[in-house]
Amino acid sequence: MKITIRPNRVVEGFEGESIMEVLVRNQIPVQNICSGKGSCGKCKVWFHSGMPEPTQSDLKHLTSQEIDAGFRLSCRVKAEEGMEIEPVVVEIYDRKEAAFRDMIQINLDHGVQKVKVQIPKPSLEDERGDWNRLQDELLKILDVETVNIKMFALEKLPSILRAGDFVVTTTLWDNQVLDVEVGDTTLTLYGVAVDIGTTSVAVSLVDLNSAQLIKVLSHENEQTAYGADVISRISYASESGEKRLRLKHAVKQTINNLINQLIEESGIPAHSIYKMTVVSNTTMNHLFLGLDTANLAVAPYVSVLNNFIELSASELGIEINPEGRILTFPNIGSFVGGDTVGAVIGAPEVLEDGNHLLIDLGTNCELFLKTSQGMMACSTAAGPAFEGARITHGMRAKPGAIEAVTITEDGVEIKVIGRQKASGICGSGLVEGIEQMKLAGIINKKGKIIDPEKEGSSLSPRLRDRIRSGGKSGREFVLSYGGKEGSDVFLNQEDIGELQLAKGAVCAGIKTLVGMVGISIQDLDSIVLAGTFASYLKARSILEIGLVPNINPEKVKTAGNAAHVGAMRALLNRTVFKDAVELATKVKHIELGGNKVFTSNLMKSMYLERTN
Ligand code: FES
Questions:
Q1: Does residue 45 line the site of ligand 1, with CB under 6 A?
Q2: 200 and 318, same domain (yes or no)
Q3: On the chain, which terminus has fewer CB atoms closer than 10 Å, C or N?
Q4: What is the CA(18)–ligand 1 centre distance, in A?
Q5: d(CA 498, CA 491)
Q6: Distance of CA 3 to CAs 13, 50, 158, 227, Å?
Q7: Matching Pfam families, A to Z (predicted)?
Q8: Residue 127 — left, alpha, or beta (φ > 0 → left; ψ -120 to 50 → alpha)?
Q9: Which of 37, 60, 78, 85 most suits a substitution to test ligand 1, by most atoms within 8 Å of the C-beta?
Q10: What pLDDT does residue 91 have?
Q11: Are residues 362 and 465 in the same domain?
């Protein structure tokens, strides 16, 4: 039978299928929280033709206006010839989720297979063991020569089979049964993509049946209590095995807390999450796996492993299905990890013909350069300023954070995430704020806030009034006054110094890497900025403060959190993960530590000015 899906698709529906099953089979996003049981009220669609009578579930979960207008819960409606429906697009307000939604469009081939099996009941004539009878059915259905089963699934198989009257759903990976569930649970299959940053960890929950992104959450990496950057974490972990385990536990805890929050908010059971992909820098990768990091920080900077690794969730203590597969991205070198590989996979335009530079901005900033001579990558320690850390009023990009700043002689105009009172400043606000302060003459190219009495004659009184002597952190410039109920948000001399260190390290890294292949910045066809806050940076700002050497601003592009997008794409498609593994072996790793050209470039890159 034909079902029309507005705006412009006609799909096949089969006898006995629900509208939700038709949508899921055709990879059309529909919210499915209760596995089609009619209890969550999330799967509504709008009927334009063939509208059925409302069911009890419709009456319970939809308003009378919605019912009159033609909305119905898609899991409660059997498909019928000639039905015409319009899926209800789930609105996503989070700025990260909105950016991710379009970027993960990809063919579904994640490798996790849910198969519903009805197996013959045992009898005196058929005394095959429970697993034997399930195995025989699976061999027929899958048309393969072998199927194995994990002990975890085998142990519970007898009770699961009998609880579901011998109707069971098996979840398979590489022809191996990971788990068995009572009845038909084929509609509930989820995965998580994890981006472990030095400062923040982000986890996205994805429906593996429809490739729909359900939600992304992020939180400060709990390891930050033991050091702000990778070097301090390595030195802490190297002090004793117990301390290394403490760091492993801290990041595991951060990930589990985020997963539990996602589960709670979406109503999705943890055991239905069967796959997880992880991108991170090499140090975070090692600490997540509990590996020794001591040799990462001393020449010749050797990791325990650069390959990808596949483990079960129970081996790592991750709270998804215990047999859920965890795949970590391969590392390129000691300080260029799977997050760089993920960023390239998430922004594949950098692999096109021509010369392309990808900059993954974070506490540990990675640079990837692709030219006709091949691919190379290096990393430079930018510090946590871009993520709002070590900045007096720094905060992550969440409601209340200043994300954009405009300074004119009339004063300061700020844009705050969530349109509320400013409570701090995030990375994009910091970069633009300092660019605007420089252009307005509030700071000089050395980053020094001018003395309003001596050098402030060219400033309007409104701007002069915002410069205060401050405390031991030097002068400060007020971006937002808190009034009676809040505190002022300002940038002081130390904050500006932190940004100079971060941007100087990035700029010096770019000059050194590009110089190594004998091309100039002008020879680049594109500079792609990746990183959580990169999408919110303006090309004008980063060129003006010399974060990136001078180039035609039209060549500067942004790719959002490309590493996390790469993790999501690999979650949804096995070939993408295979490509990532292959890519990692082809990229030449460049070590900047001890490189004299880099040291000299670093000295010249601290000024807040355009640079060549
Ligand atoms: S009501 Fe939950 S999926 Fe339909």
A1: no
A2: yes
A3: C
A4: 11
A5: 11
A6: 6, 10, 40, 57
A7: Fer2, RACo_C_ter, RACo_linker, Raco_middle
A8: alpha
A9: 37
A10: 41
A11: no
> What CATH number corresponds to the domain at position 6?
3.10.20.30
Cα–Cα nearest to 580, from 359, 306, 373, 320 = 306
Say whether pLDDT at 95 is over 50: no
Please count the residues of the chain: 612
Q: Per DSSP, what are the bridge partners of residue 112?
A: 173
Whether 36 is in the pocket of ligand 1, judged by its Cβ within 6 Å, is yes
Split at pLDDT 50, 70, 90, the class of 92 is very low
Q: Is the CB of 282 under 6 A from ligand 1?
A: no
Q: Which atom of ligand 1 is nearest to the CA of 32?
A: 3
Q: Is the CB of 75 under 6 A from ligand 1?
A: yes
- CATH code, domain carrying 176: 3.10.20.880
C-beta separation of 82 from 2 below 8 A: yes
CB-based contact 57:18 (threshold 8 Å): no
Can you state the percent helix, strand and coil of the chain, rounding each to 5? 35, 25, 40
Same domain, yes or no, for 362 and 422?
no
Strand partners, 87: 45
Domain count, the chain: 5
Which residue(s) pair with 173 in the sheet? Answer: 112, 176
Identify the domain containing residue 118 by its residue range: 112-182
In the structure, what pLDDT confidence band is assigned to residue 103 with cuts at 50, 70 and 90? low
Instruction: Quote the mean pLDDT of the chain.
Output: 90
In a domain, 160, yes or no: yes
Do 226 and 297 lie in one domain? The reply is yes
Q: How far is the CA of 83 from the centre of ligand 1 (A)?
A: 19
Q: Is the pLDDT of residue 97 over 90?
A: no
Q: Is 611 in the pocket of ligand 1 (CB under 6 A)?
A: no
CB 72 near ligand 1, within 6 Å: no
Query: Could you tell me the distance, in angstroms and rounded to a whole number, from the CA of residue 105 to the centre of ligand 1?
Result: 24
Q: DSSP letters of 86-152?
A: EE-PPP--SHHHHHHHHHT----B-SEEEEEEE-PPP-SS----HHHHHHHHHHHHHT-S--EE-HH
Pocket probe for ligand 1: among 32, 209, 212, the residue whose CB has the most ligand atoms within 8 Å is: 32
**30, 199, 382, 529, 531 from 562: Cα distances, Å:** 25, 17, 18, 9, 7
7 preceded by a cis bond (ω within 30 of 0): yes
**Residue 201 beta carbon below 6 angstroms from any ligand 1 atom:** no
Query: Of the candidates 525, 521, 501, 504, which has an alpha carbon nearest to the alpha carbon of residue 513?
Result: 521
C-alpha 215 – ligand 1 centre gap (Å): 17
Contact 31 CB / ligand 1 (< 6 Å): no
Q: Does 296 reside within a domain?
A: yes
